[in-house]
Amino acid sequence: MPFSGFDFIIPVLVVLVLLLLFAGIKTVPQGFNFTVERFGRYTKTLTPGLNLIVPFIDRVGAKMNMMEQVLDVPTQEVITRDNAIVAVDGVAFYQVLTAAEAAYQVSGLENAILNLTMTNIRSVMGSMDLDELLSNRDAINEKLLRIVDDAASPWGIKMTRVEIKDINPPANLVESMARQMMAERNKRAQILEAEGLKQAEILEAEGRKEAAFRDAEARERAAEAEARATQVVSEAIAAGDVQAVNYFVAQKYTEALATIGSSSNNKIVLMPFEASSLIGSLGGIGSIAREVFGEGGTPQAQSNRVSSARPPRTGPAQE
What we know:
The chain is 57% helix and 22% strand. It is an alpha+beta fold.
């Protein structure tokens, strides 16, 4: 069976259609965006999924990763404001937001971000003292993120985080810092010890003050009691009660004899009173007891008995 020219055209057309389909259909994976260029000029951006372009006229330009990416910042030396040299390294996280800007606004996106971050690390950390550098790492990270993000925003990217990983001062500087820390701790310990001694002395003084106040109060109470007792005796004497006088005198004599008797030395004491006076006073005490318990006579009779006693002559007494 002879073949006509039409029989050859049909397969050729089918092949051309297939080629056009393969050239015009583009599949973009998730997390990526493709830029489309027509005769070298950007026209549109292909999003994840199935996309169609004009075959042999449009072509895929840049394939941009839209996921968040990490960029390691190498170690570099930074001179602080107080002329300390420290080695610093870090890490930066960024995400492409606009594929066209990231592809056509900067050449070598990662290299640009890396150099921008390193430059700003030297600028920010070089304006701080070493102590601030070691104690304010969060503030440094926040400042770096704000500066780098503002500078990289025309490139269609978003800096999500800039972190300082390590700050390594020289060995001699670390040793000096250790000595400084030890001196500061010793200083705080001495201050705390001094504060403790001060508080102890204050409490002790307050205790002495309280004890003195209580002693004075006790002496005042004793004086008031003595005054009251004297007043009662005086009132009794004024009322003609001789027994109260005998009781008061006998009490004082007894206390004086007890004081003399408690001495450890054997001595001769010249008594400034008569022994019979003490006996008479003791007799007065007995009369008071008999009157209280109902064993004696009338108070007038007891008073006559006490007044009838005759004291002997004053002489020396030996203990």
